[in-house]
Structure formats: structure tokens, C-alpha cells
Amino acid sequence: DGGITQSPKYLFRKEGQNVTLSCEQNLNHDAMYWYRQDPGQGLRLIYYSQIVNDFQKGDIAEGYSVSREKKESFPLTVTSAQKNPTAFYLCASSAERYQPQHFGDGTRLSIL
Amino acid sequence: KQEVTQIPAALSVPEGENLVLNCSFTDSAIYNLQWFRQDPGKGLTSLLLIQSSQREQTSGRLNASLDKSSGRSTLYIAASQPGDSATYLCAVYDGGGGNKLTFGTGTQLKVEL
After folding, report:
1. CA of B46 vs chain A CAs: smallest distance (Å)
2. So what's the pLDDT on residue B100?
């Protein structure tokens, strides 16, 4: 079955630690996205990539980094510079610009 | 800056009732609008996408309408069922050349037996 796989489902970060969230898709989509969801707020865009080896900052990129070395993969690193990382992180992909976005099941990140 | 608002924030209805969820957006220069469903602790499932040139889209018991000039969309759910209980989110693609979805905060729906 085609889809988006995010791992791990739950992740805990210690103070000063960088952690990486995985996102893999087998839909052959060109575009991939990372969103952050906080209670009572809509999803906010962290980074997006429309093609391999290219990515752009979204609305809340500070404290995060990404790479897009393969079409199927778009990992997100939450760095120690992100002072409030506790949230639900969602990865999405779309065939191309303006096409429907398909979402993974998310990773919940908490601080130890 | 585009802002998307969904009212009400929460809604509880008895099974079988028809209901309407509302979404409004401040900048009418959108490319399209998408409705999603989110179950607790899960990702989003796309329900309907309406292009800016369209007035409505239908899928089964769901009907979404779009009035770009007034900055409004509605999601109509017919004959609601307990399995429809979830949070419903609307999101707009800005027509400004980027590929950015701006989301509302959602309506949490509970359909009771």
C-alpha cells in the first residue's frame, strides 16, 4: 500500500539534545512538508521541499533543520535551539504544487 | 497574512442529524481549499478538495461548498453517525505562488448514539 510512514510514534528529548524525526513516502510524490501541531492551534508549516536537494523555510523554521537527499525521504531534526519542542509533528507529501496533501500518522515529541 | 477560522470549535449532535461546519478565510486570493478529518492522535485524512473555480464538491454523505468572494466554505455532513466523530480541519492554498497550506484550528465533532 502506498503511503507516508513516520517514525518513531513517540520520542523523548533531553535538554541540549538534537533529535531526528523520520518521514518516508512511497507515493512517488515530488513535494514533502513538515508541520507542527499544538493544542488549540492550527497546523503550522516548518519546512517544505518541492524537489530533491531543495527545501524552503516555512513559518516556524527556527530551531529546526531538514534535508532532502532522496525523493522518498524528508527527515526533520529538532535542534537544541528549539526551546519549546513539545508538540505533535506531521509529515505530508503531494504529487506537485497545489495537489492534495497526504499525511503520515505523526510523531509526538516530549521533553524529559 | 491569510487567517483561517473555524466555528464552532466543538459540536455535539445526536446520531442521524444533518450538520454544517463552517470555515472562513481572510484573503480570497486562494488557489483551492481542502477539508480534512483528524482522529485523536492520528494524522490528517483528506476528505474533499475544492478548486477556486468550483462552487462545491461531493463525496458520499459529505458536501463541501466554496464562496471565494465572501471568504467562506461549509462542510455539510448528512445523516451523521458515531463514526463521524473526529476533528474536522479546513485549509487553504494561497494563490501567491508558494505551496503553502494555511490551516484553521478545527471543529471537534461528537456524534452521540
Report:
1. 7
2. 78
